[in-house]
Amino acid sequence: MRQLPLHAVALFLLTALAPGLVRAEDAEPTPSSVLFKNVRIFDGVSERLTAGSVLVEGKLIKAVGEHLEAQDGTSIIECGGRVLMPGLIDAHVHLALVRRPGEIRNDYDWMYVGALAGDQARRMLLRGFTTVRDIGGPTVGLARAIDGGLLPGPRILSSGPFITQTSGHGDFRNYNDPHPVMTGNLSFLDREGWVYIADGADEVTRAVREALRRGAVQIKVMAGGGVSSPYDPLDTVQYTPEEMRAAVVAAENWGTYVAVHAYTDRAVRMAVEAGVKSIEHAPFVTEATMKFLAERGAYLCPTARISLTSPNYLGLPPGATADKLAEVNAGARNQLAWAKKYGVKLVFSTDQFGAPEIFPEQSKEFLTLAEHFSPVEVLRMATSTAAELLALSGLRHPYREGTLGAVTKGAYADLLLVEGNPLEDVTLLADYEENILLIMKDGKVYKNALKD
Ligand SMILES: [Zn+2]
Q: How many angstroms does the Cα of residue 194 sit away from the middle of ligand 1?
């Protein structure tokens, strides 16, 4: 009973002390109907802007057209021919990883983690991200708090815990930590739902079912080595085809799908052959495997900036983790060019986690992608194609009243009003403070710099 007020106090303090940022209760009391007048619309797909107006009623877009009239009580936003586009979608974030896993495990308590995650969620919304797929970590409760209007943040499609094999990429134990299943000694990360360690098809099935029971929208499985875990070399393949298939079947029985963390060729192929729909990272795949991804229609979340950014830039101290990242940098050089060549379905994805100073890197993903793709290609990755990937969660998708990633009749009113034309220069979204003038989510305005 005593925990709830403390939660509230922690959240209040964090939100009250962050100057210049909106609190949920500060969101403007938007009337139920808003007319964006005189906009040029990027609808999420087309490479041409359409001039017109957009009428929002409640949480949805009621109409898009050339000559929309305002009814009594409709509030009118005169947009001066600026570009209106869908709110951004990031398909790979970890809001509960407010620091590196080892730091959280050793030094943090759950309430502090929750408060920090809430703070990051608000900042993410104010960067223009109205929807995120949280692809590992206990964020079901955070989604609940945001959806319930307790604090501002993006829509969250949470994966709940990482499902990992013993000594897999989600096994964040120190060398001498006991095994949670073999000894019954659950670490903080096991206990609080960051990770389920599961070996063998039966345990994997149970872990997936438990994650779904706890509210996972889609399932995240670790299929190979990764940078931030200490005892799984990058070249490793994790899980057998039988174990991977067990995860896919358990997810599909629940109407949803599996996303995997996978770096190597073998890990990616094994996962896709087992029925995995979303591949995360994949810096070491060969050209042939990239072609295979395209043929199978799998989605690729390349987390390009982190894959191509040097460890020094991210402030990683020298050591095993930095060495691993340097290896990823080298491997990922051709990834985007091959993905483009074969038409792989790419989705905007940043892998944002860790210290608060790293989180704003999220918007710089636009700078990296713009070096390889045209503006409209990048914009689709962060809107319509991302929404298509999220839709694979079927009836587990928490936001089914409207379309996401689109400015069309019946879509959610998740909208950005942008200074400049992102179809000419998509990098302007990286400077979100300057260039994203208005942010609406679910029909509610969270930022409006037009008035100044
Ligand atoms: Zn990740």
A: 12
